[in-house]
Amino acid sequence: MSVTDDAIEAIKQMIVDGELKPGDRLPREPDLAERLGLSRNSLREAVRALSLIHVLDVRRGDGTYVTSLEPSLLMDAMGFVVDFHRDDTVLQFLEARRAIEPAVTELAAMRMSTTDIEGLAVLLDSLGAEPTVEQLVDNDLEFHRRIAAGSGNAVLASLLESVSGRTQRARTWRGVTQEGVVAQTLAEHRAIQHALATRQVDIARAVATLHVAGVEQWLRQTLVEQA
């Protein structure tokens, strides 16, 4: 379990124990970090992760609050973190994506127009130097959607859209909890775009396989650690 996961678990326990209630404001960052024995950076990442699933509400200039949810809904939101870590169904969708996406990328290397491939580079550049996880995931979904459309196979594109959507939560959580994943994802996207631009069909398939296997490998390792 990562340090960020430890921080998430610590905040979760404070809510489960009733120490923090819906609507309560979290203690100041340095005070809470010292109390929990965590670095301020780990605590900050945990807060960002919990805000993504609407457990915490970060109000700029005012502080961070537990969202005003009904207790049962709040626990459901927090249970999501554990549920998807232990859900073999997510792994099955990731396996399906690993089977479909390389084939789609290979077809795109042969059929996608040069203009559309150049548009992928523009899409990646639009993220800037330091995108947030949320911006990266949105960009990632659009990146792969365009490649699927460029494959010229509407059936495969539809299948991939369905499968990919079911893995979005895992991809978001990986971006929050795994160090360096934002830069890694961007580098892999640029490698895919370059392979498409140079019409290297085999390379396009290979880099796509490595790319989509990353989330699956991370989740399998997480499941081992949970066990």
From TrEMBL:
InterPro entries reported in the protein's UniProt record: GntR_C, TF_FadR/GntR_C, Tscrpt_reg_HTH_GntR, WH-like_DNA-bd_sf, WH_DNA-bd_sf
Lineage: superkingdom: Bacteria
MF-aspect GO terms: DNA binding; DNA-binding transcription factor activity
UniProt xrefs under PANTHER family: TRANSCRIPTIONAL REGULATOR, GNTR FAMILY, UXU OPERON TRANSCRIPTIONAL REGULATOR
Organism: Amycolatopsis acidiphila
Keyword Ligase in record: no
Domain HTH gntR-type: start-end pairs: 1-69
Keyword DNA-binding: yes
Keywords (A to Z) from UniProt: DNA-binding, Transcription, Transcription regulation
Protein name per UniProt: FadR family transcriptional regulator
CDD domains assigned to the protein according to its UniProt record, in alphabetical order: WHTH_GntR
